[in-house]
Automatic annotation (TrEMBL), chains A, B:
This is Hydrogenase expression/formation protein HypE. Residues 40-152 form the PurM-like N-terminal domain. One of its GO terms (biological process) is protein maturation. Residues 163-311 form the PurM-like C-terminal domain. Gene3D superfamilies: PurM-like C-terminal domain, PurM-like, N-terminal domain. The gene is hypE. Belongs to the HypE family. It comes from Methanooceanicella nereidis. It holds the Pfam family AIRS. It comes from the Archaea.
Length: 333, 333
């Protein structure tokens, strides 16, 4: 492969292959602790008796305003959630904004208001930024890169699952991806589908405070299917999911069926997949459900010895859940 | 003004106005220490008895390979230098890469090699990243956002100048901007002009170790003219520059004259403007000159009571150096 293609940026197996063949060659890849080589949600650098967690994400979503959020809210939520997935309280974030010439100043102000509102929900701050403007023939829509730091006592990894653990998902699956695609295609389904875009640190903190969390990952590009496979593979375990337990909204399911897209393979922007010790599972679930963004949390499966991700279907069969090649549509986050 | 224009991203007064009317409205703007409201080279967050410095920059330069560097080297240098300007040892950096579909895999590998090489020069690491791919009709050239953290004992500010201080520039002025423009326009001037793109932490550290540095800023977009004005304004002092002392390469001057561009108003990518206590000036200058990227360092002026930036000309007159509206050409960094 001598050219970069869209699927290389879609969060699935093909992106892992691009990263493996290019970025994995970087030798200066670790500052102590968890570095680039881990390909986790962020890096963790030991500092005193704590860890500084550092993460980054570029947001290229189109349209920039969508039901349930906008690129500003998304940019903060994405970074807050990546920090949270490493067990870190979000502290300070950055925005690198790249704007096409002629962009509406009012829209920019709306985006910045959303940034501020999302920060306020989790007590984080935007502490520095950068602004670039490109000719309109060079760029078609605003892009926002966000980086952030958080503080963790002990970083939580995506590789920490053990046989016997229980898998919790903090809410309904596929809302963001399916709503964006439906909105973009102009589909109407009675109720308007909405993105789940939200900064979920408070939900994650409630789970962490119980003390039984072994692994976390947020199912953005490539969706829950991708995240379960990464967690199973990195933890050297098998995950067994119950199809009946999967929380998928009826309208999301209907839209996904019509679009021919599996809700398990599309991005979520306000959810976490959390591995928990079995003896703490009920208490952790209750703590999560008691938070604003955790009301629909459920246990969806368990961890066993072995490899891969298996789903027990409603009709009593079972099938592999494969990691998708990538999110089925571009510019969803 | 209801639309964003190119000059809003050009690093001068118009960009300050955009930032002032939009980003300055963010209320969640400080995590303790130096926050967004300071509009410094980065933020500084107290942690134990040190400061975590956090900074970000998006790199949109075109062409991506240029004499003296490429977008990969630039992305690391820009962030390392912003950390250095805050007095912070660069520790851990991120790369958010946005790639147009069809981009050459070999070029991507070359860029990543440059990233690694620049990191190695200052002992920093790339610890996490993000990759997005956009359709080629949406984006014309690769973009890289870099964020980074460093550790400072005490942050150095751009507002710390005091009357009596001496102003040092760590090397020749205008090399990056003038070489990029010349290269883009296909001009030849006998010798090939080269960007000064470099990570200058070791040079800055040599200055800091002497103990007399009062303020620093790197003259990127908007050049030395912009930086001197920002430092004078934020420090509530006047800066007096000697034209005769300004280190400008003969070929840069010739090209700048031909292009009708002032080398003082274009971006540098491997330089610092440093304020130093007068009693430490000679020792600091000697320490800087003893480093790889500081050989052409000189004292260019002094700080007095008053406001603004004055240049004493070679012929014995004097004139104001105004902050430029912006860098004269787009996509120079």
């Amino acid at each position: 492969m001598d050219k970069v293609s869209l699927i290389h940026g879609a969060g699935g197996e093909m992106m892992q292959s691009l990263i493996g063949s290019v970025f994995a060659n970087i030798k200066n890849n670790n500052a102590g602790g968890v570095g680039l080589e881990a390909l986790d949600d962020g890096a963790a650098i030991p500092f005193g008796d704590k860890y500084i967690v550092l993460t980054t994400d570029s947001h290229v979503i189109k349209p920039i305003f969508f039901p349930g959020g906008d690129i500003g809210r998304l940019s903060i939520s994405g970074t807050v959630n990546d920090l949270a997935m490493m067990g870190a309280r979000p502290v300070a974030l950055t925005n690198g904004v790249i704007i096409p010439e002629g962009f509406s100043m009012d829209d920019l102000k709306k985006i910045v208001e959303s940034v501020d509102e999302a920060l306020g929900e989790v007590g984080a701050a935007l502490v520095t930024g950068d602004t670039k403007v490109l000719p309109k023939e060079a760029l078609d829509s605003i892009l926002i890169n966000t980086a952030g730091i958080g503080i963790a006592d002990t970083p939580i990894r995506d590789s920490g699952l053990n046989p016997g653990d229980v898998i919790i998902v903090t809410g309904t699956i596929g809302d963001h991806g399916i709503s964006i695609i439906s909105h973009r295609e102009g589909f109407k389904f009675g109720t308007e589908l909405r993105s789940d875009c939200a900064p979920i640190w408070n939900t994650v903190k409630a789970a962490l405070d119980v003390g039984g969390v072994t692994a976390m990952k947020d199912p953005t590009r490539g969706g829950v299917a991708n995240v379960l496979n990464e967690m199973a593979s990195k933890s050297h375990v098998k995950i067994v999911i119950e199809e009946e337990a999967l929380p998928i909204r009826q309208d999301v399911k209907a839209a996904a069926d019509m679009l021919g897209i599996d809700p398990m393979e599309v991005a979520n922007e306000g959810k976490a997949v959390i591995g928990v010790r079995a003896d703490k599972a009920d208490e952790t679930l209750a703590a999560i459900k008691n938070t604003k963004y955790g009301k629909d949390a459920v246990i969806i499966g368990t961890v066993t010895e072995g490899k891969g991700v298996i789903m027990k279907t409603k009709i009593g069969g079972q099938r592999f859940i494969e990691p998708p090649l990538g999110d089925p549509v571009p510019r969803v986050c």
